[in-house]
Amino acid sequence: MKPLFITLEGIDGSGKTTQAKLLAKALGRTGTEVVTLREPGGTAISERIRKLLLDPANKGMAPECELLLYEASRAQLVREVIEPALERGAVVVCDRFFDSTFAYQHGGRGLDAQLVKASNDLGSCGMVPTCTVVLDIDPQVSFARATKGGADRMEAEGLAFQQRIREAYLQLASSDARRVHIIDANGTPEEVYDRLVGALAELLPAPMFTEES
Questions:
Q1: Which DSSP state fits 204?
Q2: HEC-encoded secondary structure of 158-201
Q3: What is the DSSP letter of 150?
Q4: Cβ partners under 8 Å of residue 127, min gap 6
Q5: Pick from 28, 104, 159, 177: CA 20 to 30 A from residue 211's CA?
Q6: Mind listing the pLDDT tens digit of every residue in the chain (213 residues)?
Q7: Would you give the DSSP letter of residue 61?
């Protein structure tokens, strides 16, 4: 396989982490090197930034500070992990990337769209995913799922915040339909996985549906 950078997106509780694991497992069984990552995080520095961003004690964090911390974490991840992985021919599967920043900091926080996009250009070091899949689900369903065991600083913003984020994701998909694909995240993990593989069919070795994974 040629190097691929696949990102999974969606509101909190949409099932991204589960789907990233299923996809990475199936790709690994083809003999491909797969690097699985999450944002923010994935490096020692980025994980420290993650703790700052998600700690409920930091509820007074300004939206601009939040934006810049996400971009700092991303830049470290790109330079330290993503670029080297792609250069050696690996497939990178990342749970969130710069589309999350657009959805959360523009859609959720209300920061200017062009400001967020310019910040994303810097934070991503020019790296653009090969393909992005957004797992779309009713915010009420996902919010209940995400906060079942407690809420981090972002989840604590509430349901209306998640609804604005979902609208921003839909906006992204309509403006960049070649790269960003929306799939229905309702149903069992296996049903959602089959939809995910369908959205990535042109990029992946086939077949990679649930009965093969």
A1: S
A2: CHHHHHHHHHHHHHHHHHCCCCEEEEECCCCHHHHHHHHHHHCC
A3: -
A4: 5, 78, 82, 83
A5: 177
A6: 678 999 999 999 999 999 999 999 999 998 999 999 999 999 999 999 999 999 999 999 999 999 999 999 999 999 999 999 999 999 999 999 999 999 999 999 999 999 999 999 999 999 999 999 999 999 999 999 999 989 999 999 999 999 999 999 999 999 999 999 999 999 999 999 999 999 999 888 665 555 444
A7: -
Predicted structure pTM score: 0.93
Coil, strand, or helix at residue 73? Answer: helix
3-state SS assignment for residue 209: coil
Residue with tokens 């906006």, as numbered in its chain: 171
Could you tell me which of 100, 102, 97, 101 has the C-alpha nearest to residue 82? 97
Tokens of 37: 């990552």
Distance between CA atoms of 213 and 205, rounded to whole angstroms? Answer: 12
Q: What are phi and psi of 36, to 5 degrees?
A: -105, 135
Q: Specify the CATH class of 4-199 in words.
A: alpha beta
The one-letter amino acid at 59: K
